[in-house]
Fold this sequence. Notes:
The structure is a single chain. This protein is mainly beta. It has 1 helix and 4 strands. It has one helix at residues 64-69, and strands spanning 13-21, 33-42, 46-53, 56-63. The strands form 2 sheets. A two-stranded antiparallel sheet has the order 1-2. The protein has a two-stranded antiparallel sheet with strand order 3-4.
Amino acid sequence: MPKVCEVCGKxxxxxxxxxxxxxxxxxxxxxxxxxxxxxxxxxxxLQKVKILDKGTTKRVSxxxxxxxxxKIVKI
Length: 75
C-alpha cells in the first residue's frame, strides 16, 4: 500500500540529510562544514481512519492535515 493520502494525494517528498563537522561559530569554533549528503524521504503523517463515503464505510489512510480541515466525515 503506497504512503499516499486518499483525500488530497499527498505523498512522499525527496530530500537530503546533511552530516556536519566542526564547532559552530557562536560556540567559539571556526564554523561547521558539511562533509556528507545522503538522500532520504519525507513521509506524510498518515492515519488509518474509518470514513463515510457515499453511504458506505471505508477504512482509508488520510493525512492529519485533511482530518484537521474537516475534509472527511469520521465514524
